[in-house]
Amino acid sequence: MGVMIRLSRVNKVFGDLHVLKDVNLEVNEGEKLVIIGPSGSGKSTTVRCMNFLEVPTSGKVFINGEELTLKNRLHIIRTYMSMVFQSFNLYPHLTVLRNLTLAPVKIHHKTEAEAEELARKYLRVVGLESKAASYPAALSGGQQQRIAIARALCQESKIMLFDEPTSALDPETIQEVLDVMVKLAKESNITMVVVTHEMGFARKVADRVVFMEDGRIIEEGTPEQLFDHPKSERVKQFLGKILQH
Fold first, then answer.
1. What confidence tier does 243 reach under pLDDT thresholds 50, 70, 90?
2. How far does Cα 245 stand from its chain's mean position?
3. Helix/strand/coil for 174
């Protein structure tokens, strides 16, 4: 299995704020990597640097061995990656089905029939096939996020990035989104990088968990290593607070 994503000494500076500090990280093909840590630790910026939504101030990003640049960004992203955000970013004036078929037709040059077949397949995966003709406003937040996941799946990417996909949801609907992501992790060979505060999900799904604070990776390991036997005092303290709730 090759390395799908590699960050080499990545720094990101916003004005006076040094958000990422020499981050080195590799994610293998098919690996499920979960990034945890306190708010403001650089988790989301790390993921957003993987597809140049945030361009690193210094350092390099490699996708499947190829260096990501501003020139080749569109080609590499379309070839390898899709992303699920905190907000669902669905087009409100389009039906669910149309939201899902848009990119396959416009970007990947599929026929309408091929795109629709793909869309219905992934609506089944997220358990919302009956909502194909609905508009986003008629759906709950959890359903909209599951549609956003289906839309990302329609791009048939080798890599899926998730930036706190449940943080904008009501507590009642968080689980339905996590269940879809668990299913995806167990049943697919997609390389997944997930920024989340959901520790139960991290424990269940991750091959590896990375803990970040203050723009740096403090500790990484299997869920068992990190949750049950953390080496760093800071990780112990963080998990002690989080896991009490």
1. confident
2. 24
3. helix
| Distance in angstroms (rounded) separating the CA atoms of residues 158 and 79 | 8
Q: What pTM, to 2 d.p., does this model score?
A: 0.94
36: its two tokens: 């945890």
- Measured CA to CA, the distance from residue 154 to residue 148 in angstroms comes to 10
pLDDT for 245 beyond 90: no
Question: C-alpha angle with apex 54: 143 to 73, nearest 5 degrees?
Answer: 90
Helices 112-125 and 171-187, axial angle in degrees (round to 10): 110
Judge whether residue 100 has pLDDT over 60. yes
All residues at 6 or more sequence positions from 60 whose CB lies less than 8 Å from its CB, including other chains: 7, 8, 9, 10, 67, 68
- Over residues 215-240, the mean pLDDT reads 96
CA distance 96 to 128: 10
Query: Percent helix, strand and coil across the chain, each rounded to 5?
Result: 40, 25, 35
Is the pLDDT assigned to residue 210 strictly greater than 70? Answer: yes
Q: How far apart (Å, rounded) are the C-alpha atoms in residues 112 and 94?
A: 15
Pick the closest to residue 164 from 90, 218, 84 (CA basis). 84
